[in-house]
Amino acid sequence: MTASNSTNSNIEENINKLERGSFPQNWSAYNTAQTREIELFMKLLADICSFISNSEHRYGRPTLPLPDMIFTSALKVYSGFSLRRFVGLMKIAKEKDYIENICSYSTVSNYMRKPELTQLLHKLIRMSSLPLRSVEKDFAADSSGFSTSRFARYFSFKHGRDLKYRQWVKVHLMCGTKTNVVTDIQITEGNASDYPQLKLLVDNTAGIFQISEVSADKAYSGRSNLKAVSSRGGMPYIPFKKNARPTKKGCRIWREMFHYFQYKRDEFMKHYHKRSNSETVFHMIKTKFRDNVRSKNRTAQINELLSKVLCHNICVVIQEMHELGIEPNFYDYSFNNIHLK
User: Fold this and answer.
1) Per-residue pLDDT tens over the stretch 129-184
2) Do the Cβ atoms of 55 and 29 come closer than 8 Å?
3) CB-hemisphere CA count at 13 Å for 217?
4) Among 247, 204, 195, CA closest to 226
5) Global pTM exceeds 0.90
6) Which residues contact 172 (CB under 8 A, 6 or more apart)?
7) Which of 227, 229, 267, 332 is the most buried (most CB within 10 A)?
8) Cα 103 to chain centroid, rounded
């Protein structure tokens, strides 16, 4: 047996243990992953950013390399340091040849306001989930709010004076239920509805992963969302509201899942409760990278949140490198439909 076949068999054995629900914590692997995380994080982040090509410089003052700026922006979010203290980490990255130049701390802040960074971070998040493509088949969707440093005012007739409230940004995400890797993310205003986001999350996830089932709460319950999951080959485990009826004209999946929900409730709920993994993902992100955003600019807030999720995914990959023995190759799965420009 070759080394590659031996590695694949070990990964398959570990995945089978996950599916049987008998995968106890491997403390040796966990300790190794945690103690080496910072070292491996910088290396893997540099590997992902290496797929980004620089835009052609035509006139004016030369700009800093695009891979460097995305690397430093994500590393800044990962560290949690202030901009001035973060300069020390940039020097370490430069010594290890992860970046070409050390920029001013204010340049990192200015670059986070660039709209073109947003689309790139979306693509990098999906790329960072690629090493776990063979592991994840069941997914969960949910949303959660992140507070900002901005406040809005309104006049309260009840109190007869102006009142203020903190503004929030809402994150909608799809994650794998075995490793908690995020496969796609959408960011909206704090009061935006959850329902319209599921179809896009499912479509983007299906572009990389084979979907077996998707679980979500009642906020996503509706004919179009059930059809969106079914059209991608998955089973939608979304509970029905009290006023739901079995007759939805022209929607077979609605009728089938309604009767499944009514007559095999216990079996349905076993699949549905995988949704709790999405809450675990938000807990992991908020605990490690804070539950608020520091940026005041709207675009910078979005980019900061996307960077948090990118950092989370890389940390998940590092953990599974030691737990499952996967190879962190981010461009080994015919992912040519994403062009990082």
Assistant:
1) 999 999 999 999 999 999 998 777 766 777 777 777 788 899 999 999 999 999 99
2) no
3) 11
4) 195
5) no
6) 141, 142, 143, 185, 186, 187, 188, 194, 197, 201
7) 229
8) 28
